[in-house]
Amino acid sequence: MSETPPPGDRIAKVIARAGLASRREAERMVEAGRVTVNGHKIDSPALNVTPSDKITVDGRPLATPEPPRLWLYHKPTGLVTTTRDEQGRDTIFDKLPEDLPRVMSVGRLDLNSEGLLLLTNDGGIKRRLELPSTGWLRRYRVRVNGRPNDATFEPLRKGVTLEGERFQPMQVTLDRQQGANAWITVAIREGKNREIRRAMESVGLSVNRLIRVSYGPFQLGQLKSGEVEEIRPRVMREQLGLTEEEAGRAPGPQAKAKPRGKPQRRRK
After folding, report:
1. What distance, in Å, lies between the first and last C-alpha atoms of the chain?
2. Does residue 20 form part of some domain?
3. Are residues 187 and 227 in the same domain?
4. Catalytic residue among 94, 110, 150, 175
5. What is this structure's pTM?
6. Which among 228, 223, 231 has a CA at the least distance from the CA of 247?
7. Active site residue 110
8. pLDDT per position as a tens digit, 100-124
9. Same domain, yes or no, for 184 and 230?
């Protein structure tokens, strides 16, 4: 007979739901001895906790989990999508509005990419949106240097293997030629590191601008560079298929928030 699982949720999940870190980051916090439960330091994330347990991280009581929230962010170029950068470059978190709560990015956009980046205060939502099994389409407007025709992209539509890494078939549409450059629309379901740039290089094209315009059902729309807009709680619940218990009672959406400071301009 199988044993009855202990009540509650794994400690890393609880920390992530409090918006303190992603689940993986929370596991590392536990392994580093930064977490106590009921006054005892723990070193393994294989522990279930309940609401009655007293949890501290770095000596501070863990806050009560806030209802999950989700934001659209128009990432400018020139910012890295990390909390800290070893090279001292500005991060998106340096430029977000000051009144925004602690958030985590859903996936990444590299330094020279721009457009839609989803932000959330909930580690579980972040994980759900990043899972490959979600299969949400990510759509990009891409400018390349060169004069491609429709046949140029046929290898990408079938899927390519680059340096031993397999890329799933892409949806690629040639939109227009503009001088020495061409604009194309690309849709992918994975989002591997520099996937579109590497794929274009494999067919002899160099990407000089890359803008993410949608992530699943969420659209960049008319959101200006550096601005943040919260997704309505009802829309978030419906699109993510959240239960009432998972969604909690989320606060109403706020107006578009302007960025902190002035985002860096794209280097030409």
Report:
1. 66
2. yes
3. no
4. 110
5. 0.76
6. 231
7. yes
8. 888 999 999 999 999 999 999 888 8
9. no
